[in-house]
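Thanks for the sequence, V.! I ran ABC-type dipeptide/oligopeptide/nickel transport system, ATPase component right away. Repeating your input here for the record:
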Amino acid sequence: MQLEAKNIGFRYRKKPWLFRNFNLTLNSGEILGLKGQSGCGKTTLARVLAGYEKALEGSIELGGAPLPKGRYSGVQLVFQHPEKSVNPRWHMRDILQEGWRPDEEVLARFGIQPEWLSRWPNELSGGELQRFCVVRALSPETKFLIADEMTAMLDAITQAQIWQVMLALAKERNLGILVVSHEAELVNRVCDRVIELDSVHFERNSSVS
Ligand SMILES: Nc1ncnc2c1ncn2[C@@H]1O[C@H](COP(=O)(O)OP(=O)(O)OP(=O)(O)O)[C@@H](O)[C@H]1O
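Predicted structure:
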């Protein structure tokens, strides 16, 4: 299966185009890196690929069909700030089970302690909260994960632990991952190939596949 961006273009209101005629193909099981300077449009591209924003030009296809609307999408996005992506009035158990019901083994692999399930989001550290957001996105229906600076706020040891489990899981499930990061060391270590957004975007006819 492939996640494909075909000639996509996006800009905010009347601002200049962030990218245009941009093509990208992510294959199942592939770990693809996306690097680029701050402000060049990485997060915007991640949101468009995951269907959070609609491309103003071109299309996004998952397995040759448009992204599904109104039901669980096979393309999931995890971004840098877990506190902004959880409902502060929900217990962690409910947050976790929004998309699926992960078993204890998955929780243990990501270092989630059972007693955290009955806490509120503000009773966890950023790193603990992010583990929940990662697991929440990893339903068996997830085919592609867009990891937008997913571990940027974590210490080096936690970052390494999470990526070790992520990569093992990607292999087991043939999951494709787009690793959006400004950390060259991380991208070079975990990715099969890397795109430099600066060199290919900005209204040029860019094609990456
Ligand atoms: N909702 C918005 N409305 C208007 N402009 C926006 C909006 N979100 C982002 N931008 C602008 O679009 C450009 C790209 O932002 P984006 O967050 O995609 O960049 P980025 O490459 O992910 O940056 P960083 O690495 O700093 O997170 C920036 O100039 C930003 O100011």
